[in-house]
Amino acid sequence: MKIVLATENRHKVEEIRHFLGGLDLEMASLKNFPSVVLKEDGNTLRDNALQKARIVAKAAGQWALADDTGLFVEALDGKPGVSSARYAGKECDSQKNIDKLLAEMKNIPAEKRSAHFSCQLALVHPDGREVVVQGKLEGSIALKPGGEKGFGYDPIFYLPECHCTLAEISLEEKNKISHRGRALKGMRGVLESLTIRGVAQPG
Hints:
Helices cover 31% and strands 24% of the residues. With 203 residues, the protein is an alpha+beta fold.
């Protein structure tokens, strides 16, 4: 079964390939479709995931898998939320996003820094078939960054049960507990069902 990973983020590609390893899948990335331009102007993570997957499925003529992930901080009324990737501006990077978030929370005590990650994962076929699964991870915002693994907000997302941040655990450990890992577990079941049935691919 052929499937295109609708992301330009190499870290996400690595996580997805790692988690879906062993399935009868031929996975391609957007590097194989340089003319495709993704859009993320939806009001929710689900909207954005579906939007990206639909664009790629139509362009590639085959199954496309896309995700949208957001960090929701209670003390900031749910921000950065759907704007997590560009919280510090359109041309920002992960470090600038982290710096902005920590600056906004500098006077918020540890007991009020609860947050969660949410991941919406969409699988779309050009014939209109669509499946969306979600995953969620509870935690809190650390007082300062810790760890060099992971990406995005991982260095400041503290896991109380692990006594460390997401950036301080291995990819294997992360995939077992993370929001994206939980969403991918659900999607793996969907893909297993499709590959078992021997779904024919267009083209």
